[in-house]
Design a protein that fits this description.
This protein is of the alpha/beta class. The chain has eleven helices and nine strands.
Length: 299
């Protein structure tokens, strides 16, 4: 079995050494793996650093470059080069836990032998050693990514190790003129046909950074409103049975937020479901006012 680790990166040369070191440590797993890095138009020392890693030959490093197109297109382009049986993303500001490759190898048979499963869901820990969000109800808990977050409310960042042959059938869809969309938009499409199996072991370590997507979420929202609008519209098109009203309210509010930011016409008319449409109609004016107050002229 072979594991592929994918890292999209942009001007993160000072962080890549820690990730590289964690991969070198994990080479003792005796499991074949490759590290594929897509440089999304970096202007720092990323190229020199990665070319040095390649030349060292300590681990299998494959370095690619593209003009700046954003994280999602970088991942799409990296997937074309993946040769492992399973694959997962490790962002440039994160690193692998010691023994991560062994943990993946130990459980991959459950993924590769079951045609109804597309990913294993693992935990992620902070630099302080705490689990990001909640743990899963039990080991080998079977679910899907939408249900984990919206029905079971198991929040926090989780790491998904995909069956490569299934993952290659899907791509992140980025709306015209935008650079980013939440990974969940693609995951929810795969959920329609496959499940995930959850394992309460951490395979990655990392915290949110000052220059990361999560920390700069307001700018991300303003720069990519069309993709987020489509994401929440697609959720409203789904079966929301089992989703708590609190979570539904989160969906309604964000649908209004991105309808306003993307200047979407007919946003209420486009809502699926009578109850959804009634609630969004009721929330529309206060939601629009709140959006304009938060984002000012941009809204």
């Amino acid at each position: 079995m072979k594991v592929s680790i994918l890292t999209p990166t942009y001007n993160r040369a000072e962080l890549l050494e820690k990730l590289y070191t964690s991969l070198v440590i994990n080479r003792n797993s005796n499991v074949e793996f490759e590290w594929l890095v897509m440089d999304d138009g970096s202007t720092d020392k990323t190229q020199a650093l990665l070319e040095n890693y390649v030349s060292q030959g300590i681990i299998d490093v494959k370095y690619y470059q593209q003009e700046n197109q954003g994280k999602m297109k970088a991942i799409n382009n990296l997937m074309e080069h993946v040769s492992g049986d399973v694959c997962f993303i490790c962002d440039s500001d994160d690193y692998l836990a010691t023994g991560a490759i062994d943990i993946i190898a130990q459980h991959s048979k459950r993924l590769l032998d079951d045609e109804t499963v597309y990913a294993l869901a693992f935990l992620k820990k902070t630099l302080g050693g705490k689990v990001s969000g909640k743990k899963f109800p039990e080991n080998f808990h079977r679910s899907d990514i939408f249900s984990l977050y919206f029905r079971e409310e198991i929040g926090g960042e989780k790491i998904f190790v995909f069956d490569t042959k299934i993952r290659k059938q899907y791509k992140h869809i980025v709306e015209d003129g935008e650079y980013f969309v939440t990974e969940a938009r693609m995951y929810h499409k795969i959920d329609l046909d496959y499940d995930v199996i959850c394992i309460n072991e951490a395979i990655e370590v990392g915290d949110y950074r000052q220059d990361g997507y999560s920390h700069n979420i307001t700018k991300v929202f303003l720069d990519n409103p069309k993709g987020y609008y489509m994401y929440f519209k697609e959720i409203l098109d789904m079966d929301l049975a089992g989703v708590t009203f609190k979570k539904k309210l989160y969906i309604y509010k964000h649908y209004i937020l991105f309808s306003v930011l993307s200047k979407r016409k007919g946003a209420i008319r486009n809502v699926t479901g009578v109850i959804n449409k009634i609630i969004i109609t009721f929330l529309w004016i206060p939601g629009k006012i709140a959006t304009k107050k938060r984002f000012g002229k941009s809204a």
